[in-house]
Design goal:
The protein has 306 residues and is α/β, with parallel strands linked by helices. 25% of the residues lie in helices and 27% in strands. It is built from nine helices and 16 strands. β15, α9 and β16 form a beta-alpha-beta unit.
Length: 306
């Protein structure tokens, strides 16, 4: 039996609970891992609330929270190729196994080996933030010297997008709350505080608008900044599919092993070096997720399990 943290039904933080569960048996296409580090993401509380159907694998309650992890392979299900027992790996729990636990199952096709020289802590931040950054910038495909606006630059995904954009020699303007300024400016972002007139503030360094927008906020904030893009198609949203109504696009995610390996190489090169602002033990998982859910964290929060 191992400890896990999850939820007994869909709802808010009040449905969360610690519980013991036996090691899950890896099914076809899955690997059982001992979790060393789990990443914490907004997706986790959206899944708890029942707002992202289809990612629970049909598993019964209580369900374990968490979508990304790094650890060591303990067992293989059928039809798993390219991974072996004992491998240090990182990836997605796309079949509902959760990652805020001592052991879990990951989807083998969405899991990759951790390359030598990369820590499990860094690797655990890459499945969501790292691959998202690669995906949105590949979709924009802007030339060096172009200007992008990262709407919501201060979180784990936003900073990853900004870092990769800077490595591609793009000028980056980013919006966020005042608490996010320091981390954004440290990587060369022209930071704009949400509290003011965002459109006017962006127009100062980019009077003719921007070449692309990566939106991580959605809703009114997305609709406010979308007209700043010179071409509506170059507005890419990560969390709000209504971007299509504005002429933009929703990010096309690539969760395969190849994209994970690509993100890991970029991390080894220092391009996707995450800003990890908090490391919590599993016993403190409630506080870790609460920080992300309340929007009070800059950078990435992780849970160190092993």
């Amino acid at each position: 039996m191992g400890q896990a943290w999850g939820f007994g039904k869909h709802g808010g933080p009040e449905v969360q609970e610690f519980f013991d569960r036996p090691d899950p048996a890896p099914e076809r296409g899955e690997v059982l891992i001992r979790v060393d580090v789990a990443g914490v993401n907004p997706l986790d509380y959206l899944l708890r609330a029942g707002l992202v159907p289809g990612l629970d694998g049909g598993r019964p309650f209580p369900r374990v929270l968490g979508m990304e992890a790094a650890g060591t392979v303990l067992a293989l299900g059928e039809d798993v190729h390219g991974l072996e027992v004992g491998d240090a790996v990182f990836g997605f729990a796309l079949t509902g196994g959760g990652t805020y636990a001592e052991t879990t199952v990951l989807s083998a096709d969405n899991t990759a080996r951790i390359p030598a020289g990369l820590s499990a802590t860094v690797a655990a931040t890459l499945p969501v933030a790292g691959t998202t950054a690669v995906d949105v910038l590949d979709q924009l495909d802007l030339p060096a010297g172009a200007t992008i606006l990262v709407n919501g630059v201060g979180g784990g995904v936003g900073l990853a997008v900004a870092r990769l954009a800077r490595a591609r020699e793009l000028r980056v303007i980013g919006t966020g709350s005042a608490a996010k300024r320091e981390h954004a400016e440290a990587i060369g972002v022209q930071f704009i505080d949400y509290a003011g007139d965002v459109v006017a503030a962006v127009r100062e360094p980019a009077p003719d608008g921007v070449d692309g927008i990566v939106d991580l906020v959605g809703g009114t904030a997305l609709r406010t900044v979308a007209p700043l893009a010179r071409h509506a198609r170059n507005v890419i949203a990560v969390g709000d599919a209504s971007v299509s109504e504005l002429g933009g696009r929703f990010v096309v995610r690539r969760l395969d092993r190849g994209n994970l390996e690509r993100s890991a190489r970029l991390a080894l090169d220092g391009v996707l070096a995450p800003v990890i602002t908090a490391v919590h033990p599993l016993s403190d998982a409630p506080a870790a997720l609460a920080t992300v859910e309340n929007g009070h964290t800059a950078g990435k929060v992780v849970i160190k399990v092993a």
